[in-house]
Amino acid sequence: MPIFLAAAESVPAFFILLSLILGSVVFISLLFTRLRQSLLVGYFLCGLALSNSGLLSWAGADSGELIHALSEIGVILLLFTLGIEFSASEIKNLKRPALIGGSIQVSLSALVATLAAYYWGLDLNQAIVAGFAFALSSTAVSMKCFQDMGAPDSPPGRVALGIALFQDLAVIFFIVLLPVLLDEDEGSAGALVFALSKATIFCVGMITLSRYGVPQLLAAVANTRSRELFTVAVVGLCVVVAVIAGLLGLSPALGAFVAGVVVSNSIYSHRILADVLPFKDLLLTLFFVSIGLLIDLQTLAEYWALILIGTVATIVAKGITAAIAAKASGLRSGDWLLTAAALSSTGEFSIVLLNRAAELDAIDPVIEQILLACTAITMGLVPSLMKFSQPMAKKLHKMGLQSKSMKSRHDFGMPGKIDHIKDHVIICGYGPVGQKLHASLRRNNIRSVIIENNDQTVKKLLKSGTKCLFADARHRITWELAHIQRARAVAFTFPLKDVVISALPIVREICPSIIVVARAKFSSDALELQRAGVNHILLDEEECGKAVVSTVMRCFSTEDDEMLT
């Protein structure tokens, strides 16, 4: 044992903590998958067990600062991915759910929770903080559940997204005003002006960067055609903006979210999504485990009744307010039930608010522990609540309880930069071959989506109104954004065998029956593509040979015609 402890001193504590977390998560995931239970609950229990079992102390990784740092990193990167998925165009498509539904849900939830907290004995300002934290839902968990159910584009999913977008906008202003709200000193008006000034400077700076700094930087990086450099640049942008927000007295997590929003409307957003989203599930895992690490089991055991009451009250109250908001957004009976289940928890921004309030010494540690536990439990229960609400929603549909005025009254649009499209052709590469194919499809009124890795080409195509993604065909998210599940065919118009072979398993997994056409330079490449499952292969050597023969023979045909005349 002394030898082990001596050796452990040479290993960084952060690495020990990370290895313990990831190793434990694997076993917890296997157990909960077999039991068919929510993995999110398992992650929370994993963190709770690690922090209270003495294992971290034995391994020398029980530093409170280290655990908080891990939690902060997880929240920052998670909110960055949420910011990337945030889009101003989504607000336009979801005006009614975002503005009407979101305002109803946030105001009702915050009011109910604030009154309850004040009645419970909290100061008014602290009650307002707790009430607003209660009003927020988990965008990451709810949207992931809709994706797992295969219904991210459904009316309940779209309304849930609209309400979540409103929450994300509202929390930005609340975090800015939080220090002023919790300041008990005189001269709060001056503090308010100062806080708003800092927020204004930050927002103006981010808007300026989004137009005159970030696009040029990403364009220069994209022109290098280096995937590694592009990923480093994106993560670096996230960290720098988060640090700037922290230096201005704002939340670094809020800064990371804003950094994601800055790049969300650029042509590079799809490429960034493809690079970052594969890590989103890992970040969500670390986020839940870190919540468990922050909770003291002794406090949990002592106040388990309050935590249980708080959890049930949160689900019931949030579910009712979300249902009212969903119905006001135009959802028919049954559909609003699924939206209510998706938004019935508190969320990641609730954790950010609580952490910020704790930094300002404005919230009692016991209350923070209780609220953290309620947040983790309610977030973990969302997948099960949505699963159980589906059959109930179908029963309501069959009963025909919806009114005619509420039925299919609004079109909530579709997510992503590519609108609803089906029976289309996905063209990978817009070189000479891709251009000819695209022109032919347009002449025959066949819709298409182009995947291209040249940012200048993408800009020209987008200006002309062509549906185009600046993305890499080797990423799953690229094909999902191109709606491959509804496409008729995929055409790889460049003769790069390795890219086609890397992308093909993803294509077949999402849409096994789709027709795939590809080019090959040599006969050996064609054989590999055939084995990989390409339906139609065009061999450049063969096609070029046919063209040469046809051209040469045409010369002789011309001479024969002249001799006959």
Report the biggest beta sheet as strand number plus sense, adding barrel if it closes: 6 strands, parallel
- Sheet with most strands: strand arrangement: 3-2-1-4-5-6
Please write the CATH class name of the largest domain: Mainly Alpha
Mean pLDDT: 78
Strand elements, count? 6
SS summary, helix count: 27
Number of domains: 2
Within the CATH hierarchy, at the fold level, what is the topology of the largest domain? Na+/H+ antiporter like fold
Apparent shape: elongated
* Proper CATH architecture of the largest domain: Up-down Bundle
Q: Report the end-to-end length measured between terminal Cα atoms.
A: 103 Å
The share of residues in helices is over 70%
Q: Tell me the β content.
A: under 5%
Secondary-structure-derived class: mainly alpha
Provide an overview of this structure.
Helix content is 72%, strand content 5%. By secondary structure, the chain is mostly helical. The chain folds into 2 domains: 403 residues, Na+/H+ antiporter like fold (Up-down Bundle); 136 residues, Rossmann fold (3-Layer(aba) Sandwich), CATH 3.40.50.720. It has a 6-stranded parallel sheet. β1, α22 and β2 form a beta-alpha-beta unit. The longest helix is centred in the C-terminal third of the chain and has 35 residues. It starts with a helix and ends with a helix. The relative contact order is 0.10.
